[in-house]
């Protein structure tokens, strides 16, 4: 028992099951008023508990669907639906994922580029850095739908507008992390490179870049989560064009709560998978660079 | 095409760049003038951006629908401060954002202190909290609108959920930041749990907590505005943005963006100021002087 309570996985399991239990409790309480109304109209009295529960959990548009309803909807729309039709969550997830990936790639490259400029030029550092930070206090996510609509009206449609929003959200963590990373070699190491009479490019590729890599991966994990959010919000106004965001909006229009929750879980799974993928690349890179396993 | 504007903008850019490059090289011993230079460099850069924007928009005759010039946006802001900017600000910022922010952050703070006493809960909740704070939580906006109705309460609920988890994770991390030596010292003073908490562990946790408060200040604004896209009374910054897009009144949209940016920056700045006052002892604050 002692060892069991020390185990992190066990603790997480307990917490997750507690959350699911609480969820069931709320789903009963929140859906009850509607069910009462149904019974009152049908003139039924004293419905047995099992009947009541099964009725509660088979409502078409529950206020809060029970976890197993969401799981069934998730299963149906991921594994049973044809992935090339808009009924499938895979279809929507793929649209969102491609916008996220493109935006994330742009954002990371832009972030690294800006960080290189900032580290190598004092004027850029002093004038750009405060604005990079200020740029993040602008709630860009809030105007994301507008950016998409305006870009659509000049003929830029499809992936690019959403990807631009993802770029804007993901470049910031990369800039901040990489500036820190490029500056992480201390004076001793820089001096050593100088005694080897290393050129600027050599100094960058052989000292600064390798020591900045751990920072790059950490900030990429933050950035990829941000770009997923950006892509989803960017899809809100595009309506029929597809993507998890438009699925959310459609669900909200038609009161399909189960569909909204399933889309949310898909987004969660995507976000977790992306972060996991970056961790895997990080481990591989560290191994290739000779870090202790 | 109006090449005069373009040439002016580019010349201004080059001149500002030169001045900045000079300013950065100046070495001053006087701390006051050093601060003035530190302020002048980014301000000059910002002005340059605005001039470039104005010059390029005018020079290339960019249609207003695509990108209005800063001067046009400024006129629109001045015209519409009494209506609709101020009512929108009241609805979105004063009601939804501030209420949700205060509720979410204080709830997370209380929960963090509660689970801090149980190492088991901490081990279980932290990975879950970390996972949830990486999720696209704005997605719950349609659900909250269904539950709490169209008015500001549903927006505040979205803000509560969005601010809760970053605050929880950071507060727990901050409470763990106290070293064993300091805790032992408190024990030799025969300090109780609450005394240790208030006099040692909370002060050590302030930098983490303020970090979360700063992250949350922008998250809260985003949450409130995005939630308004899913249904709202006919007032609010998110409503105005989506309505103005529909009519292609792009200058109105940009006026709201400017308002949101200003509110977001001031909110962030206010929290940063409070942080400086509360954690005056922290190396990152002392080192800044």
UniProtKB/TrEMBL annotation, chain A:
Keyword terms: Cell membrane, Membrane, Transmembrane, Transmembrane helix, Transport
Q: Which InterPro entries match?
A: MetI-like (IPR000515), MetI-like_sf (IPR035906)
The record, for SUPFAM superfamilies, names: MetI-like
Its localization reads: Cell membrane
Q: Which domain of life is it from?
A: Bacteria
Q: Which Pfam families match?
A: BPD_transp_1
One biological process term in Gene Ontology: transmembrane transport
Q: Can you name this protein?
A: ABC transporter permease
The organism's lineage is: Bacteria, Pseudomonadati, Pseudomonadota, Alphaproteobacteria, Hyphomicrobiales
From TrEMBL, chain B:
- The protein here is known as ABC transporter permease
**In this protein, which residues make up the domain named ABC transmembrane type-1?**
109-278
Record field: transmembrane: 6-24, 36-53, 93-115, 127-150, 156-175, 219-241, 253-274
Record keyword Transmembrane helix present: yes
Q: Which UniProt keywords apply?
A: Cell membrane, Membrane, Transmembrane, Transmembrane helix, Transport
Location(s) in or outside the cell: Cell membrane
Q: What GO cellular-component annotations does this UniProt entry give? A: plasma membrane
One GO biological process this protein is involved in is:
transmembrane transport
Organism source for this protein? Pelagibacterium lentulum
Q: How does it sit in the membrane?
A: Multi-pass membrane protein
